């Protein structure tokens, strides 16, 4: 099976109509490619002529040739050569090398038009099944400069921006999406083995510095390019440009050919604050509304203190001024004085909240591109409508805000 993936890796790089790399002229030049049937032979000659340089620049391709020329060689043997001859590459690889690959979906962020449809990124988990915020992530996004308004929309829709890959520790992405932007995160495990993840990383090294990849908000966006990267080892993951491709559709696409278990969820501060407040009784809510930095020391109700803590986490966000420090310190101090049995309730609420969020799993949501017939009760007659939007008031609310709608380019006659 690995040989099949390797063969596809090379055809993907050199010959595919929707090649992730060779589709762009600047990238063809970077990889010493010419648009001809001799690409494979040309690369073979380069590999044999200057093996060390070729290995350190193109490890994904080098492994293709290595496996072909060394039938008994293993990926571990190949990585041993990389460690000896390409120290920069190997350090980079070691930082990302993982046993498990996850795709993470961040819910809609209405304050940024480019993120209103959600976002996806990859997470590399060092040890399978173990939770760690020190794991690394891979993100593809656009250089948007400081444009706003019409210029921002025009460039975003028609490829006026360029996309780029970047890696960051997971805890930074977690803070960015949950604390700063109040978005929920859904983490799904992908089926790929460590060997396959290694091949993805070696290919990523080859393309990570490409600076001329046009980025389109509605089509060739974050999710599109992450799937193209994954398709190096999984042909079924590849998608072709289709006018628009929403991030959540990448989950639907992957789900067609593999199980996509939801392994974890991360709840936004806003949702936590609402949940903890609505869990209070009317009497507790009165105490909550009367609370301030001066009388927190007089509150002995652990549930009210937890609700206040979640409220201020949401209210202050990333702000760390004197007022926020005084209030949060007062709540923590008061909670520390309470008997343990009175604060255990927070753990059960956290479990319940996560359970509710899992029910909003975007993979279980509805499809898009609505086509339907409507009957006008007051005037009579029928009308046909087509909406390519994300969500309408008639759709089930699975994974969407209640009583919300997000549509565009609606057509009715």
Protein model, in words:
The protein is an alpha+beta fold and 413 residues long. Helices cover 45% and strands 14% of the residues. It contains 17 helices and ten strands. It has helices at 2-14, 25-30, 39-49, 51-57, 59-69, 75-85, 87-96, 149-157, 170-180, 194-207, 222-230, 247-255, 269-278, 282-290, 302-316, 322-336, 345-358; strands at residues 100-106, 119-125, 136-142, 161-169, 185-189, 213-215, 262-266, 370-375, 382-387, 411-412. The strands form two sheets. A seven-stranded antiparallel beta sheet has the order 6-4-3-2-1-5-7. A three-stranded antiparallel beta sheet has the order 8-9-10, with no helix packed on it. The chain is globular and about 80 Å long. The N and C termini lie far apart (51 Å). Mean pLDDT is 78; it is low at 1-38.
Gap between N and C termini, in Å?
51 Å
Quaternary state of the chains: single chain
Give the SSE order as H and E letters: HHHHHHHEEEHEHEHEHHEHHHHHEEE
Beta-strand share of residues: 5-15%
**Mean pLDDT rating:** 78
Strand order of the largest sheet: 6-4-3-2-1-5-7
Q: Count the strands?
A: 10
Q: Summarize the biggest pleated sheet.
A: 7 strands, antiparallel
Report the principal-axis shape: globular
Can you give the helix content as a percent range? 40-55%
Rg on CA atoms, Å: 25 Å
